[in-house]
Write a structure and sequence with these properties.
The strands form two sheets. This protein has a four-stranded mixed sheet. A two-stranded antiparallel sheet has the order 3-4. It has one domain: Glutaredoxin, CATH 3.40.30. It is built from seven helices and six strands, in the order H-H-E-H-H-E-E-E-H-E-E-H-H. The N terminus is likely disordered. It has about 160 residues and is an alpha+beta fold. A hairpin with a 2-residue loop joins strand 3 and strand 4. Helix 4 packs parallel to helix 6. The termini are far apart.
C-alpha cells in the first residue's frame, strides 16, 4: 500500500510541470493585448476535425520549452477556421473562414505569425515538431525574417 502511495505522489510531482495549459486568447482580444504589450502574435488556425491540429495541441504546444517560450514572448490566439467568432482585421469584420482565406490559408493546422500591430508576417502550414517549432519561434521573435530566409537562419544555427 505504501509503495502505491509513493508512486502516486511521484507521478503528481512529475505532472506539475505540465499542469498549466497555455492560455489561448480569442482573436480580437489577443490583437488588443499585443498592441498594448508589444509582443508578436501567434494565431493557431485549426478545425475540429483536423488530426494534425490535435497533434499540435497534444505534442508541440504541450512541450515544456515551447510553452515557456510562447508564454514569455508571444500573445497566443486560437482560431477555429470553421467557427463563428467575428474577427476584425484591417478594420473589416469577417468570419474565421474569410479571415483564413484572406491570409491564404488553405490547409490545417496553420500557424499565422503577426506583428504586435496585427499585421501578418508569415504562415507556417502544417504540423511542426517541437524542436523545429522552437527555431521558427525564435526566427520570428528575433525579427530574423526581415534579414534572411529561414534556411539561412537554420544553417547559421547549425541545424540540418
Amino acid at each position: 500500500m505504501k509503495s502505491i502511495m509513493w508512486l502516486l505522489i511521484v507521478m503528481a510531482f512529475i505532472n506539475i510541470g505540465n499542469a498549466k495549459d497555455l492560455q489561448w486568447k480569442k482573436y480580437n482580444d489577443g490583437i488588443a493585448e499585443a498592441k498594448k504589450s508589444g509582443k508578436k502574435v501567434l494565431v493557431d488556425v485549426y478545425t475540429d476535425w483536423c488530426k494534425w491540429c490535435k497533434t499540435m495541441d497534444t505534442v508541440t504546444y504541450k512541450d515544456k520549452k515551447v510553452k515557456e517560450y510562447l508564454e514569455k514572448n508571444f500573445v497566443i490566439i486560437k482560431l477555429n477556421a470553421e467557427g463563428n467568432e467575428q474577427v476584425t482585421y484591417a478594420g473589416q469584420k469577417m468570419n474565421p473562414a474569410e479571415f483564413a482565406q484572406g491570409m491564404k490559408i488553405d490547409g490545417y493546422p496553420a500557424t499565422l505569425f503577426m506583428t504586435s500591430k496585427g499585421e501578418a508576417i508569415t504562415v507556417l502550414p502544417g504540423y511542426s515538431e517541437p524542436a523545429m517549432f522552437m527555431h521558427v519561434l525564435s526566427y520570428i521573435r528575433e525579427d530574423q525574417y526581415s534579414k534572411k530566409n529561414f534556411d539561412q537562419y537554420l544553417k547559421e544555427k547549425g541545424v540540418k
